[in-house]
Amino acid sequence: MRLLHTSDWHLGRAFHRVNMLGDQAEFIGHLVTAVREHAVDAVVVSGDVYDRAVPPLAAVELFDDVLHRLADLGVPTLMISGNHDSARRLGVGAGLIGRAGIHLRTEPAACGTPVVLADEHGDVAFYGLPYLEPALVKEDFGVEKAGREPVLAAAMERVRADLATRAPGTRSVVLAHAFVTGGEASDSERDITVGGVAAVPAGVFDGVDYAALGHLHGCQTITERVRYSGSPLAYSFSETDHRKTMWLVDLDAHGAVTAERVDCPVPRPLARVRGLLEDLLADPDLTRHEDAWVEATLTDAVRPADPMARLTERFPHTLSLVFEPERAPDDPDVSYARRLAGRSDQEIAEDFVAHVRGAGPDEREQAVLRDAFDAVRADEAVREVAR
Questions:
Q1: Residues with Cβ < 8 Å from 188, sequence gap 6 or more?
Q2: pTM value?
């Protein structure tokens, strides 16, 4: 069976206030063409179909368009909700839409109930694990403490339990929206950290033939059977070096996996340039970036006059301007920035406690801080679901 694995469309998202709906529509057209040209048997979309819980009308219209186009091809499609989606809104009409071969899986309780497709070698069971917010679903899964790993592990136990009841030789595919250990993040994914731990081990997916993951925006292979497709378009300058693709996955009669990447259209490349303003304006090596979306980091010791206007004369698609003046290593601003770089909210809070009273928090106080951060994130998740 041949699958086309994609995720993280983020329909309705802008890139530094630039409307991307036209680029997203171009990708949808490319997706439909790829399904037809590569003789795809099923499409899997692993969450974050929309960019926010209440998407703009134009994004909903584009989603409606792709549903009709995929249904017209007669190719079954499976979708799960991600952390950016409203599961309830995305899942409206799922039963009726399913009759057209578009299977929306947004209910956590249904994760052990597969969509079963068949080819000449037998059945393939597709299990949809929508984004699971631990604080909201831990009771449903019988998990005592909210955490990504125990919740996802409990969901996978339901998958394996159902798979054990199926005919010998039944192959299996799981769609999941999560941060798996070994994955490389970018700046455009929403933080899903709970208890200081965002990632879950890839081993949680043991026992299935293929895990089609969503959430991280870079296409990457965690193991041969566990892969991220990444987003089809770049949504931050941290994705400048990404090659945007989908996975074309073949499952043979015994569940062995082979996969190749199918490139997505690049409407406009991204570029990051750094240096003194005058150097950026004169450097001939930067000519290749003049038609790209540009993030410019200026290192001038003194902020130049009208930097954006001058940059856009050469780089008309400059979207982001960052100032990082070159300073002496002992400059207090540099030292403070270095202390914060790469540190989590928990670590920054612990540093603050140590600064105020001269000693860092003990284990009990660390737990209090961790619970406070978890409560804030859980409250944000509840508000997101309620929208």
A1: 217, 231, 234, 235, 236, 238, 239
A2: 0.84
